[in-house]
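Let's see one such:

===
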Amino acid sequence: MTDQDAYWSAYAYQAVAGKLAGISLRLVQEADIKSDHRVLDVACATGNAALYAARRSAAVFGLDSDPVMIEAARKRRDDLRMSVDFRMGDAAKMPFADASFDRVLSTYGSMFAPDAEAAAREMLRVCRPTGAILMANWNPGSVITAMFRTLHDLHPVAESIEDIARRWGTATGLRELFGPAPRIHSNISHHHVPATAAELASVFADHFGPALCVVEQLGEPAREQIREKLTSLFAGHAGEGPKGPWVCVDYLYARITRQ
């Protein structure tokens, strides 16, 4: 495991992933997956998108460089009695042949690949000419991008992702990464996380690797400081509807095709 992997997997990430699972569900719904499709979830983490895709009776694969994430994804698969081939692998050097998949999915995972250009090339390489790449990436204006900045301001062990968000979370950035040939359709989408601002802040303060890395550096009192700062941040994006309170999380939805 690399230091980058440990940054994400040392803690119970699924508590965070569960709150954001609706983004993966929407991505799968937009992908129009058929039962005869082969589907790849790149940087799959604990497997949200892959497991949703498997409900479409497709042949689904999940790839992640982090063994702890893969182990968690396999356990979820087995508990749900579903069929997904979760594998260890690098998004910048995927262990698959050219044109292997009808759909290539990524929910705010591949955007953290250290070699962005290589990850984009690999997604294009393994996608069939008639297939599609579908991504959900944090955009510069997302509250999640602001959350990373808040954590970074407390201690630089938590990276600031503004540059990453500009590369992967804007139409211009995606065009630079994927080149002039593919067709790229993108728009800013909104996901209502079912939680109050304080509840969501506690999930991140208690379970999000970058936040807990800050706590390790500054000591346990920093956890409450993180909770307070994130509660204030999320409150500016909070509301309430018929089903209860929510926090609005923006992201860039993108569909990339060659035809």
